[in-house]
Write a structure and sequence with these properties.
Elements (H helix, E strand, L loop, with lengths): L1 H17 L54 E6 L13 E7 L4 E6 L5 E7 L1 E7 L5 E7 L3 E4 L4 E5 L6 E7 L7 E2 H6 L7 H8 L3 H11 L5
Antiparallel strand pairs: 1-2, 2-9, 3-8, 3-10, 4-7, 4-9, 5-6, 5-8
Helix pairs in contact: 3-4
Amino acid sequence: MAAKVFAYLFFFLALFGMVASDPDLLQDLCVANKAAGIKVNGFPCKEEANVTEADFFFSGLANPGVINNSVGSVVTGANVEKIPGLNTLGVSLARIDYEPGGLNPPHTHPRATEIIFVLDGELDVGFITTANKLISKSIKKGDIFVFPKGLLHFQKNNGGKPASVISGFNSQLPGTQSIALTLFTSTPPVPDNVLTKTFQIGTKEVNKIKNRLAPKKS
């Protein structure tokens, strides 16, 4: 079964490589030099003499992530921030784990299309088009589902056991904007009168939501 999983992963990563969203690379490799302190569209390249196999390796998706939040899911990224060798290559992965009833709340990836492969369990997934149409489906182990670039989407584990997926992106750093967190926990905050008008609720309700979504103080 493991061989099949990796065969699927190699297939959709190869497919993404043909339609990469990020700019094409202009050299064999450009390992991210995240310590350079220079801001470019991506990261500047590390000196090739200092490049090692560690720049292209990451083992963080092998095991389920630890879920410690109110929504019941956790995302483990395998992007350029974890794998410097992905810089300029236009691909990345993530693993998402869900407890029973867990939700990956509505969010968008502004820089990438996402494709998920179900490792275990069953999920209800969907995205909403700009015409406000919901495209949704129940998927199970071995299934694949695609979320178009920039569109609002979600995944919900309505089963009685944990679930997990591997996600592929055609960007080295797809970015994520969770709708609730973006609107209610931004810094500086979105004005209350914008939120009350948008959601047709009162200031008390806005503050209640902000308090519930606020990061827990350690």
